[in-house]
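Newbie here. two chains, one complex. Structure please?
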Amino acid sequence: MAEKLAPDTRAAALTELSGTGWAETPGRDAIAKTFRFANFVEAFGWMTRVAIWAEKWNHHPEWRNVYATVEVTLSTHDAAGLTELDVKLAKKMDALST
Amino acid sequence: MAEKLAPDTRAAALTELSGTGWAETPGRDAIAKTFRFANFVEAFGWMTRVAIWAEKWNHHPEWRNVYATVEVTLSTHDAAGLTELDVKLAKKMDALST
């Protein structure tokens, strides 16, 4: 089972992810980012690619889609906080969005 | 462009849709329903089928997915309220979920 990130690792990961628009979620040990696409097909196409990785890694996002926008929150429920899985999925989401 | 439903039509549609779990959204001229599935693959598979119809009809839901749950809100932004498109998409979502 994934363990919560150690403070140093967590700080380094958050610094790196903040460079691509991820931010800590107020009141939760989670990170969030809003992805914006050209239209619904682009947004949902990206979600579909992410969904396959999420299932493969058995780590799923909380996400809200309104037309071309997808608001994502990542946290590891089992660990009640951020783990390496969240960092890995965040980076995959970024990579798949470019 | 879709027009807001006339009061009688709207009432009849809401009565019918309430039978499958749709309810008016407080403070908005919109309807909402939470769909629950067996797991993420079932939930996202359903979203994918809905997404294709939504794009085909150029009428897209607001939806939030967390693992096996999808919270949906339907409203027609151009009409600032419920239209026939919302009723049609709600029924299609129900049909695709069974």
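Moderator note: The interface with chain A takes residues 40-41, 44, 47-48, 51, 54-55, 60-67 of chain B (CB under 8 Å). The beta strands of chain B are 23-24, 31-36, 62-66, 69-74. Thread marked as resolved.
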